[in-house]
Amino acid sequence: MKNEFNDGFIANIPIAISVFAYGSVLGMLCVQKDISVYELVLMNVFIFAGSAQFVMVDMWSSTLDIIGITLAALMINLRYFLIGASLNDLFMNSSKKEKFKFMHFVTDECWAITMNRLKHQELSPTFLFGGGICIFTFWFCGTILGFTLGEFISDPAKFGLDFAFIAIFTALTFGMYKGKENILPWIVTALVAVICEHYMGGKAYIVIAAIVGSLFAAFLYKEESSHVRV
Fold first, then answer.
1. How many C-beta atoms lie closer than 10 Å to residue 36's C-beta?
2. Hey, how many other C-beta atoms are within 10 angstroms of the C-beta on 6?
3. How far apart are alpha carbons 186 and 173 in whole angstroms?
4. 188: which residues sit within 8 A by CB, 6+ positions away?
5. pLDDT tens-digit series, residues 55-75
6. Angle at the Cα of 167 from the Cα atoms of 30 and 21, rounded to 5 degrees
7. Beta strands in 38-177 (DSSP E)
């Protein structure tokens, strides 16, 4: 079991380096938003979801929209329902306590590496857990380093850090592109976001666009499935 944990940790180090890099960007953004290091630490420990944390920091203000932030984070992390389902065979002989403990540290990165390794050898959840701890360690250290550096940067825009949020999510978005079947849902989501942001203001457009885009994608998938059956 110990060896599998170590193997999982080591297997994730190459990709964890990039996680460290964009974690440092989050730390710098936290300084801009007047988020304390203690609040950042609590986010890392209890939420530990990079894309959701970026959205939360972007939506952070003196008057927190708790409901809006929660819904936005939930919509972004809905993919973990599918990720969890795909790991069902791996957790077949695990207790509920182990599942809760291990799943909290599951990320897109360690999940992808684990699923690829499963094609060639049998694994226990300990491998996945080792990978998750690796990603968490690099992410945590990256955010703290970024926060520390951010305190010494008086003008983030001078270094292009004001564009960091947009750049990170542009990269994440294109990384999730699976093919031409994504184009229409993406266009619909973008149009709804732009229209809602223009007429409604605030951050509700993020949640509304995510819901509409998801429902539209589900509708398209249902239509395609019905045509295939016919």
1. 11
2. 14
3. 10
4. 212, 213, 216
5. 888 888 766 677 778 887 887
6. 60
7. none
Mean predicted confidence (pLDDT) in 1-10:
84
Query: Can you give the residue range of the structural domain that contains 219?
Result: 178-230
Interatomic CA distance for residues 105 and 49, integer angstroms: 9
- Picking from 176, 200, 217, the residue at the C-terminal end of a domain is 176
Total domain count for the chain?
Answer: 2
Shared domain for 8 and 89, answered yes or no, is yes
Task: Tell me the C-alpha distance between 146 and 149, whole Å.
Answer: 5
Four-CA torsion 170, 173, 178, 180, nearest 10 degrees: -60
Q: Which two tokens stand for residue 38?
A: 């203690």
18 and 92 within one domain = yes
Stretch 114-120: mean pLDDT, rounded? 83
